[in-house]
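Lecture 7 notes: from sequence to structure.

We start with a single chain of 379 residues. Read the sequence below before looking at the structure.
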Amino acid sequence: MYSKQWLRKSISGVISLSLVFTLAACGSSSKDAPASSSSTGSAEAGSGTETASSTLDNTTVDIASGVPPWKGRDNKEVTLTAGFSKGMTGIANQFAIDKGWYEDAGIHLNFVDTINPVAAFGAGEVDIADGDPGTYIPAIVNGVKIKVVSNMWRSRGAYWIIAKPEIKSFADLKGKKIGSAQPIGGMPLTLMEVLSQNGIDPKKDVQLVPNGVYQSAYATFESGEVDATIIHQPFATMAEQAGKGNVLAKTWEFMPKYQTGVLVASEKLIKEQPEVVERVLEVYFYANEYAKTHLDEFLPWAAKYLNLDEKTARTAIESEIVLWENDPIVDKNRLQVTEDLLNQYGMQRDKISVDGTFDNTFAERVAKRLKLGKYKANN
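Now the structure, written as tokens:
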């Protein structure tokens, strides 16, 4: 499915159509000289390799007191083009953007929305983005010059399966229409695997309907176009509170080793400005840890951002707090499980090894500096 021919066509298409980008220039600001050379080796999670030193190491960080690592530092100004998630998937990062933390760290972001991040990277239209490794890993293997540089703040699929009130169990789904979000990708794969684990053949027992994500998916559920759907928060909470549906599954409980969220950077950015990659991750994970540990401040903002009352926003966010791991370091084994499942369900033609597709250098440094993941004091 992710053949070199397909990839070339996608890249050619995005160049000719210009996608949805409105910015003429991408990448680093002309004011910036390349950062000094730095090791960007691919240290694997769990290898026990000591993190390489960084020019950013001598900084003070106190997340509990709200002291970010970039405060008081001489941050070289850079401009990047980023494709960051919105909604619940990107909520704390959007909080950071709104508070101006990237700007404070010397990072000026131009934002893009694209339906094809692989083609955007291939066309040189974006420097850093987040998203599904099932999209990025095959592209890397097929020659797109990008690398996975960290997990997202949560890397297990925060997907819910909701159904009409009269549907009380998976057995009740037989013969029904189920929203699968998209024809291919992490969400339909997750749906099919969870259905299979609960005795439902996704190819024979139900009709899968690509119904979009977020509001689009919820609209098809409300209108009755589908009897059930896989969906993100806050829509599972909204359905329950309105009496329009009930939760059949929190999908991560069935697929704990399936990886759904990574950050990816262009090889050009990694090679020429490694410190900038590190600074982006620093802001990203500081913001997510700050939001998680300062809910009284974060939740009112989140409610407004999601256009919800604060009670609903709190319920939705706290329902997924178990997934809010804020561990930057990528686990090779989990990436491989993801690729193997994509192949198993026919969403990826060839078996793929994840070797060489990720670089934990920056994730290790940031995790150590912010005391996250294996560097947490209680670990």
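Strands lie at 78-83, 107-111, 128-131, 146-151, 160-163, 177-179, 207-209, 228-231, 246-250, 262-266. Keep this in mind for problem set 3.
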